[in-house]
């Protein structure tokens, strides 16, 4: 897996600059990656939509939208970011780093979108498509196999109810970021046990991420089902 090479290295630097780095002058960039994230999010949606439109020629709009949501959700993008070791490459303050910012799912997903925005400006949409074809789109097979395109909250609730376990409670345990880019941290509580946490740009997305984390942790899920 090759990290993309940039013609303009300043774009890459900005893409890797978390807003916390600006006050400490850790990065040579004079702005954070938030504008590039905004651009990258739009480019990602377009290229992902094109990919799904071509791959599933008989699916209607509703199902394609569900597939796209699963493909570009925070946890999926964070997984791709980890493959690129984006966490280690980010410029961030010591405080952000000490609070495990380099492993923060939402932060990693944002950084990946910023990288896509920078790559689009540097080399155009085909370069973005090539990167996504290598790193993100092959994950669609696993999404289909494990039916990860279903809403995670509904899927988890079905699994628990089949064993006579009440639906999880979702508790907001943290909020961060400016008003235009809030990040919510939510924990899923099952049978009084803190099961998993999730991060998202809304409380609903954070709840989905928490539910998905439970579903993907087979050992945890098995343990919860035994304690019914």
Overview in brief:
This protein is 59% helix and 11% strand. It has 228 residues and is mostly helical.
Explain what this protein looks like in three dimensions:
The structure is a single chain. This protein has two domains: 137 residues, Orthogonal Bundle (Ribonuclease iii, N-terminal Endonuclease Domain, Chain A); 75 residues, Double Stranded RNA Binding Domain. Strand 2 and strand 3 form a beta hairpin. Helix 1 runs antiparallel to helix 8 and helix 5 crosses helix 8. The chain has 228 residues and is mainly alpha-helical. It has a three-stranded antiparallel beta sheet with strand order 1-2-3. The chain starts with 8 loop residues before the first helix and ends with a helix. It contains 13 helices and three strands, in the order αααααααααααβββαα. The longest helix has 22 residues.
